[in-house]
Amino acid sequence: MSEKHIRFRIASYNTHKCRGIHGTISPERVIRVIEELDADILCLQEIVDAAGGSGKYDQARQISEAFPKLNVAFGETRPLHGGRYGNTLMTRFPIEEVRTHDITKSRREERGVLQCAIGVGNGLTVNVFNVHLGTGYMERRRQIEVLVGTEILAQADLRGPRIVIGDFNEWTRGLTTRLLQASFQSDRPIRNRRSARTFPGVLPILSLDHCYYENPLEMEHTKIWRSRRALIASDHLPLIADFRLPVHESR
Q: At what angle do helices 59-66 and 27-37 cross, to 10 degrees?
């Protein structure tokens, strides 16, 4: 038996509706940051898709057209500016299946999970869950129970390993972290905890954005992207994780 690996990079980026630290909305600025990430799978949160409105709210189209070779899936969480608002996944790989899960559990802002089955090659599938949890303590407790349940992460018919990535909005190590780390490995063991901070972008003090994964996926490297553009383009910094997935071949 010989073994080789499929390698890919996944990135998570809360774009804050493309609103930068100076308050201006610029999809073009976010596009420049995305180019820097060089991700094979890109998970975006807080994207507006309002093609009929002002150009600054036609974000989903502008971003997807800037990367014409990437496949795109959009998960709506609520209507906004005459269009829709939610999470986006873009990838160089084929998207085999798309599901959107509503995890709204309060009268606060609607929240959702975008689930995509992605064919990474050699007949292998990786299930990516692009997550954006709420900011309220009790709200998140209800949302995480739904997320780890049989309707989403524990679906019986999933084929291939899972990656759960996005903005978890958890300021400290709480129930969300404990439940996910009970079933998944994570990027949290970054040795310098300060280096894991992603919010607010220009002077981060909180680690809100994370990547959870399971065997046989192997994380080779993870980092927070701190380019000059990324520091001002949004209120979050992007998270990058490089993975390898073994492919077993018989001779």
A: 40
